[in-house]
Design goal:
Number of helices: 2
Shape: globular
Helix content: under 10%
Order of helices and strands: EHEEEEEEEEHEEEEE
Radius of gyration: 16 Å
CATH topology: Immunoglobulin-like
CATH architecture: Sandwich
Distance between the termini: 17 Å
Largest sheet: 9 strands, mixed
Length: 214
Amino acid sequence: MNKLTVPYVPELSGASAEKIVELMEIKAIRQSIDNVNWPEQFSYKPIASFSIARDEERIYLYYFVRGNSLRALYSEDLSEVWTDSCVEFFLQVPGDANYYNFEFNCIGTCYAAKRESRANFTLLTKDELSQIQRYTKLDKSSFQEKEGLFAWDLLVSIPFSLIGLEGANLPEKIRANFYKCADATIIPHFVSWNPIDTPNPDFHRPEFFGEIYF
């Protein structure tokens, strides 16, 4: 099982997106998203990583991806971003049977929900989604899939309050996994930070989450 400890970086609070990226490069913990769990069906593995840090109010994720093709058909939150060039963060708070999924395409469009399972869930509201800060160097407009080699990054910050936590009173750890996918692209792929042992691609499996310590 993968484990990491999230560094506390108070300078992140109130900083500009450019400054946050700079701080994340220096002070965050970086991890690779490199488990190809279903190689017979989906063998492609783009280069993908995330950096993680926090201040007292938010958790910050800075994704970097380099791979073949780039797609962002969806520019409206709560649309099917997992079919685009997408990165994801799933987490479960200790003692809670539910889990959260936060999914972002390469232009920062977000789909997020609180779930009992893949089938039973409550979507976050537009107001809640507006609290998730997102920054990318790509244009925010949607576009059809582009073939070729592309590199892109995405910075997001999620308030602890959206996942039922208080930044000043965090638990010792939460359980989580990080993903890179692109279901409807010319080279579909399903790559994870912590390994997943299922017959077919399925990210909605909290039993395969790793551990994140605060």
